[in-house]
């Protein structure tokens, strides 16, 4: 259990303590027009009604990760290279997606 | 209180980086952000190591706060400009501390680290050295802090504002979605609490919405009773500092408290009422 609400380092491997039979993990990378990984992008998770749920900042690997629940989610990325929006239908376990930001 | 008394814009900050008597302070949970690049001249405060008591579950006391600010080279008459990551959650939490301990002039950088980065403004890794001061904090102002008994007594009496995400409020999630969900507390919310996620008070770039939009949000949409006192809470008290800031500092409601024990405390108490689902519930 985390004792704060801040987002952990997004480049770290999924902790071994995370039970993928119980958790629904939404993960992926943010890339720019050139296909390069974007560090420092702000990625938001919005629920089925478009409501903000969480936000993380991508690390060197351009990676983001959320722990959510099965269902429909929207991912929204803001970066100095532009923005991107992605829809995802998540199931239990690891759900991967790529967000390509552009102006 | 006017918006410019409590918030500064990124443009203002850039113009005042070298102004004597203005101290920039980055507040984060993860101080590696500061180390990888910070606003020129800014000192850092670590949300956990600097602001929490190392033993008891409580925050630093008057003496510890005085010592912290003295070490950071902050004087009682300095204007402190706070900023940080996570849409200024931790900066707002620190702002609340500065007010709890009676600092006169403290402001938030609107949009925090996020807007600064999205604007591609300059950051530096230069080590900042400020001469130590002899800071003297005032006694803790209990008008700004709610404790658990007061919160339970406020059910159906005062405005309670739950600022967590709708899924945490309803009991479908136990923590924000960037964190694993295993938790020891019960899920749900304090009965009669209105659900106004902190994020509704901010724009996508992390800046605060206008006072007009905020008033419509809390009073118009959520049904906050302007004639009653208000207590805001979240999971551990930092997201609710953000809302506390919006309600007290931007909208000017006088009796607004932050319940820093928040859901990690309330959801662990034996025998207190809890409401499940999307409705506030009754007393």
TrEMBL record, chain A:
- The lineage's top-level taxon is Bacteria
SUPFAM superfamilies, A to Z? Cna protein B-type domain
Matching entries from Pfam families are given as: DUF1416
Family annotation (InterPro entries): DUF1416
What name does this protein carry? DUF1416 domain-containing protein
* Species annotation: Glycomyces albidus
Q: What high-level taxonomic lineage is stated for the organism? A: Bacteria, Bacillati, Actinomycetota, Actinomycetes, Glycomycetales
UniProtKB/TrEMBL annotation, chain B:
Cited Gene3D superfamilies:
Rhodanese-like domain
- What InterPro entries does the database record attribute to this sequence? Rhodanese-like_dom, Rhodanese-like_dom_sf, Thiosulfate_sulfurtransferase, Thiosulphate_STrfase_CS
> Which PROSITE patterns does the record match to this protein?
RHODANESE_2, RHODANESE_3
Regions crossing the membrane? none
Q: Which PANTHER family does the entry link to?
A: THIOSULFATE SULFURTRANSFERASE
- Protein name as it appears in the record: Sulfurtransferase
The record's catalysed reaction(s) read: thiosulfate + hydrogen cyanide = thiocyanate + sulfite + 2 H(+)
Q: Which organism is it from?
A: Glycomyces albidus
Q: Which positions fall inside the Rhodanese domain? A: 18-125, 160-275
Q: Which CDD domains match?
A: TST_Repeat_1, TST_Repeat_2
Q: Which GO terms describe its molecular function?
A: thiosulfate-cyanide sulfurtransferase activity
Q: Which residues form a coiled coil?
A: none
Q: Which UniProt keywords apply?
A: Repeat, Transferase
